From TrEMBL, chains A, B:
Species whose genome carries this gene: Candidatus Enterococcus dunnyi
Domain Nudix hydrolase per the UniProt entry, residue ranges: 43-176
Single GO biological process annotation from the record: ribose phosphate metabolic process
Region annotated Disordered, chain positions: 77-99
Keyword Transport: no
Matches recorded under SUPFAM superfamilies: Nudix (SSF55811)
Xref: PROSITE patterns: NUDIX
Keyword set, alphabetical order: Hydrolase
GO molecular function: hydrolase activity
Signal sequence interval, chain numbering: none
Protein name: ADP-ribose pyrophosphatase
Obligatory cofactor(s): Mg(2+)
Length: 190, 190
């Protein structure tokens, strides 16, 4: 078994390319473990949260929205990036996003997993929560200015059909539908 | 129900920031559906493939490697980005990556899903395959020059334990383990 030193790519120098509102881009010259050198193009991202909201009649709430990088409309679970100052409490961000995007708050809010979405070039860490026992918030916090969304509720069969149709096409939502299916199968087995 | 035009964010102008070997970065000024304007920081990526390889004794093959964006060692399913010229045949890329990283070829190679890994800022599309009936390739194609990896085979229980430990920490591998668990549960029910 190899040790950390056998893998580590030490930074020789860093070239800062771009510092935007959301992402930062750098190119590192690195020392490879075998003594050679290489270049690594890296995107730094503040992290994000996503919520799997399940209604009392066992449907998943999803959000239709435009995704500029894809130039298409997608159906996804509610999600958003972590704002400065929220770094230490992703659950709070997740509760805020759920309220802003759906108008619901959850009386049962459980942590599912944290996952790096694309570890080859980005450090974005996504925290996923499962939200149940939903209730409408009387005066929910408003959406961000530049967000245009439409809400849908889907049964498991409908969600799987929208994965097949391609309207659901992002990793976190496909993961969420699979997670939900797995929970239901496990409950059936009890 | 709203139409495509109710969501679309038209590009007013594009500022090209960086064209690297792997990613391209641009900032678009966009026209929002409500008439306002906004900025979108976008990363273009050639796409990637990942393989869920299951051995004859029902273990998943994973790769230990250093991930520079995270500055840590991770355990992941075999994966790699799509090279120029392979855009139309991700399955070929997946078979190549499996052979390069593990030395195996699969007699049963099934498509699982294609998913955008981070649709808020990146257009990276990841194609996932399930590989069974593995056999050792006598003289497998070599790794890329800058790749240092170590192979592991894990049972489902071991894989779930490494998710809990944090060594398995990326979205595609957590998805893969969950997918594998779901397949096994479905088979048990038959």
């Amino acid at each position: 078994m190899m040790n950390f030193e056998d893998f580590e790519e030490k930074t020789i120098s860093r070239n800062e390319i771009f510092k935007g509102h959301i992402i930062e881009v750098v190119v590192d010259d690195v020392q490879l473990p075998d003594g050679g050198t290489g270049k690594r193009e890296l995107v730094f991202h503040p992290g994000a949260v996503a919520v799997i909201p399940i209604t009392e009649d066992n449907k998943m709430i999803m959000v239709k929205q435009y995704r500029k990088p894809l130039e298409k409309v997608t159906l996804e679970i509610p999600a958003g990036k972590i704002d400065p100052g929220e770094q230490n409490n992703p659950k709070e961000t997740a509760e805020r996003e759920l309220e802003e995007e759906t108008g619901y708050r959850a009386n049962k809010f459980s942590f599912v997993n944290s996952m790096y979405v694309s570890p080859g070039f980005a450090n974005e860490l996504l925290h996923i929560y499962f939200a149940e026992q939903l209730e409408k918030v009387p005066n929910p916090r408003p959406l961000d200015d530049d967000e245009v969304i439409e809400l849908y509720t889907l049964t498991l069969a409908e969600a799987k059909a929208e994965i097949a149709s391609g309207l659901i096409c992002d990793a976190k939502t496909i993961f969420a539908v699979q997670y939900w299916e797995l929970q239901q199968l496990k409950e059936d087995k009890r």
